[in-house]
Every structure is written in C-alpha cells, then in structure tokens.
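Appendix B, example 12.
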Amino acid sequence: MEGSGSDQDAADQQNPARKRYHRHTAHQIQELEALFNKHQHPDEKQRLQLSRDLGLEPRQVKFWFQNRRTQMKAQGERADNNTLRAENERIRGENLAIREALKYVLCSNCGGPPTGETSFEEQQRLRLENARLKEELDRLSGIAAKYIGRPNQTPASSHQISVPSLDLGMVGYGAQNVGPSTDVISPSQSFGDFAMPTGFALEKNLMRELAINAMDELTNLAHTDEPLWIRNLNDNKDVLSLECYTKIFPRAMESKAYNVRKEVSRDSGLVILNGHSLADIFMDTNKWIEMFPTIVAKAKTIEVLIPGTPGTRNGSLQLMYAELHVLSHLVLPREIYFLRYCHLSADGIWAIVDVSVDNIIQNPQASLSRCRKLPSGLVIQDMPNGYSKVTWVEHVEPEDRAGVHRLYRQLVNSGMAFGAQRWLVTLQRNCERLASLMAANMSAREPSGVSSLDERRFLMKLAQRMTSTFCANISASTAQRWSAASGSNDDGVRLTTRKNASSTGSILSAATSLWLPVSPQRVFEFFRDKRNRPQWDAVSGGNSTEEVVNIANGSHPGNCITLLRAYTAMHNNLFIIQESCTDSSGSLIVYAPVDINAIKTAMNSGGDPSIIPVLPAGISILPDGSDNRRMQASSSNSSSIGSPSNTGGGSLLTVVFEIHVGNSPSSNMETHATTVNHIVCNAVQQIKAALHCLDV
C-alpha cells in the first residue's frame, strides 16, 4: 500500500498537468447541504459568502450546487421508474387474477358455466377496451415525457383525476375556490378554432405537472449564468448553450418541420412597479393587453385551472390563447395556446411562466403562424425603492409556414421582433406611463397645459384607448383581411374595412410599409418636430398647428401626449390628440381629430373617455434588424428607457390612415378607396423627400 502511494506521488510529479481532485471535508459538506436545503439556486452573493466561510473557491461552490441538483434530479427519475415498475407489476398481477377468475365464471341464471359464444364476446370486448385504454395511456405518457422531461406517473384511480379544482398543495401552494372570471370561456364553449377535447379533465393533471416543471426550468434559466448562458461581448447579449441546455433539461427527441426555428433570449432591467402589481397585470388578460398593445394583438383566458390565493394571484394557473404581432399588416401574428402560472417564493421573489400546450390541446385548423413556447416568462425581485428587478427569458419555436415578408424577414429572424429585449423595454416604458397616470400630483416643471389631475388623467386614458385601437387595427390577424389597392403592387398600399363600433357605417383603413436607410431615432425625431408636420399629416391639411397640451408619460422626452390646435380654412377649431412613444424596440406616433366640446362635456359629466369617438391614424417605426446592439444597451440594468442609437441599421415604417365612409354604396366605396390611397401615397412621398430618400 505504501509503495502504491509513493508510485502515485511520483506519477503526479512526473505529470504536473494531471488534474488532482480534492474531497470536501465533512464540515464543508454539512454546510453546503444546509444551504442547499434552503436554496437550491443560491445567488452569487450567497456563493461568495459560503466560499469564504468554508475556505473554498467560488467555482467549487458553484459546481457543487450544480452537481447536487443533477444528483437530486437523477434520484427523482429513479424513484419514478421504480413507481412505474411497481404499478406495471400490480396491473400484470390483476390481469392474471382476472384470467384465472374467468375460468370459473358461473352463469347468473342457471348456475352453470357460460356458453362459449358469450364468453368469447365478453373477452373480445375486454380486449378492445384494454387496447383503447393502453393507447390513451401511451399518448398521455408521450406528451408528459415530451414536455415534462420524464414519464408521467399513472394515476391511482380515475376519480382522483376528474377533480374540477386542482390543488398544488404538494409544492406549498394554497389554492382556494373563488368566483368565475368574466373573461373566461366555459369548457363547453369554443374560442376561434379551439374546442375543449374529450377527456379534458384527465389532461388537467398533465397541465398542472407541465406548469410546475416549466416554473423550475424558468427559474434555472433566469438565475444560471455560465455555462448555460454565454455572454457575447460583441453585441452584449446572453446566448444560450444548446448543448448544456439539453443536458440539464432533456426532452424526448421529436421530428421538426423544416420551417420551425428556435429563438432564445434573456435580458434584465429595473421596472418602476413592484412584483405584486406586475403579477396582477400578467394574470389579468385585459390588463396584460393594455400593458403590451404593440406586442399582444389579441388574448383570452380559456379557463382558470387554479384560482390561486385570493388577493395575491399566488399559485394561479390559467389556460390562455394569444396572438402576438409586429406593428405591420405584412407580418402574420404568432398564435399560441399556453399555460400561465404565477408563483411567489418564500424569499419574496415572483415568477410568471408561460409554456405551450399545443400537443395536449390539438388545433389543426389554425390559419396563423403557429408558435410553440417553451418555458418562458419573467422573474421579479422587489427592490427597496419601489422598483423591481425583472429578468425576462423568451424561448420559442415559431413555425413560419407562410414565410415572413422580405421587409421584415431580418427583423423577425434576428429575434428582435419577439425577443426578451422587446418585451422588457415595452414593460419598462408602459410601467412609466402607468406611474405617470396614477401620479397624485402634477409637477410644477411639467408644461402640461392642463388645469387639474382629472383633466390630465382623462386625456391620458383617451390617448391610451386611441393607441390600443390603432395597434389592434394594424394587425394582420384573420379578423382583418388586407387587399391591395387598385393599381398597387404587393408592396404598395393595402386596404381593409371594418364595422364602426361607435356609430353607423364602416371604417376604411389604408396602410403601407417601406424601408428607409435612416436610423429609427432620426425618423422619430423628424415626426416629433412640429415644423415638419405639414409634410405628412393629412388631418391638419398641411396647415400649421399649435401645441395646447403636453403631458409627459415617461422619462424619455419623446414619450408624451399632446393636444394640438390646427388652423385650417374649413375648421378654425380643429383639435388633434396625439401620443408619441419610443424605446429601443421601436417608436410609435398615433393621432386622431377630436371634438373639444365633446371632451369638455365628458369631463363635466364624470370623465368617461370611452364616449369620445376617435379615428386613429399613425406611423409605426421599427429597426430593420440589421443592428440589435442598441436594444440590448437600453434595457439591461437600467431603470429608464434608453433611446436607440443614431448609428447602425435602417428603419421600417408603416403608415396608416383611416376614414369613416358611412353607409356608402359600392360605387362610393371605390371613390373613398381611391382617396385614402392617394393620402397615404402622398404622405410617403413627402416623408421620403424630407429624409432625402426619394431613390429608395
């Protein structure tokens, strides 16, 4: 033994490059296990403190926790396999017992053995029923293995599966029954092409298991850095290591269509809203759409599977449907059926995860661009100053069956169109807007031009409704069919009509998208400059305007609401309400003529802005996707909304104009179509000339 030890030392001296392994002491393992029992994912500060206390390198502590989590996962898988093996043996024993019992079955009428024909038919029926149940079990187990990463446990009895209110007590969630939500579809109804499948109650357990495992994956993706995420120093982005990801989160191999891509992104930043308020927004469909009108075209809660703790949304699990869009009529929205699960951990960190349920709920007739969401969402940590630090992870597999229009192909394929950066900067900007709306007093330095808080909030709510309407109407969803205007090519003006919700008649919309070799920030500043307004605004008729009201709704000076007075030959009292907003993902300018007397009357009668008719027009400005570094720089580790850089990349513009055509016959509709087509084409030419891009 001594000789072998000496030989080993000699070998180590001869080969100094050979790696030597050191075992942890019993005290070190005890302390590491104690922290692991409390926090399986300690942050960097906790790991540094523990390494100092135990005399270890921080990397040793980090790798120990990674190995310990892998070990725990392997132990869980072995336990699951043993359970399934025991269940298989039990079913096999029951099957043998039934076969033996069938040999001695007696007829209930005569007391003798049953006839051969009856016994054969009964056996055939049992075989068919057994085959059907086995096929159903294989299907559900396949889905569970695909999404959860391990085989799903066979339920002990059917009555345990069909409980209508799921309980997540196994992981410490206090689910309680509450009244139904007004935006929920009952299981017997349908939403679009969606219909609740047969045996939906059986698949609720799969959804519960799927949500729990998705939450675990999201928190790992949010808190873990290298080797799972690798920092790209060229564009300051976190890049997911797919090799490391598949090792940590193994899934069953599956065949993919050639047009399915993978988009993975992560970003973090400060948001001027606490975790409780953010959770309430994300778990309320209407509030979620209001927060993200530039991304969410349509959304609906199909069913609330678990209501969660009353007043906090903790533990809530919902089955939802959404259409996500880019602000252009040329890009099909992405259609997603997904689970949304909200959880508040013991250390006060909120997490909200989305995960697709496409293979649990089949929807073969979908006509939009399908998209599968792997565990995605946000982790929220409250800060002492009322802010919260948000880490956003977006992991999707879009299926662009119809392809992406050539103008927007680079933007979409780069991941900027639907990535974590766009979600985060939009959240930051709209949280600033919400804080401005809920402000208890007006700043003396703000040149608002309003006389009271009520008047300020009224105009802000009216502008919000106008902007939301504009974003919804520009979508290329199935509800709106855009057709090329007469004499236009595929890249020219397109038209669509819709019913007027506030009065009789119809609304005729015209839109066109184009690329300009000018940075998005420069284009946005062009539209903000009131001296340039006569060159593109058809509402003011090319006349000068006077700014009457200016309400700031964000830290960037471009995020504001203005009320303009236009001096025209026909209307000396024409007012235009406008909202402009910008962040590193793009900019938006929406405006509409309003009746100032109707606004005054509405404010005097209680301040309901929904009674004011608005017909919004506007311009959407997006980066072309050739340079996405400015988006990263503005959102990461920042409490304010940065503006895009003036350098790098061009702009994608979508110009939209609408008119009310009333109950016009078809002949007049053609005249109106020609008029609105001319207005949009003229505005585009004026914009190109002003920006010196006539040759584009």
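The two ends are 83 Å apart (CA to CA). The CA atoms of residues 159 and 321 lie 29 Å apart.
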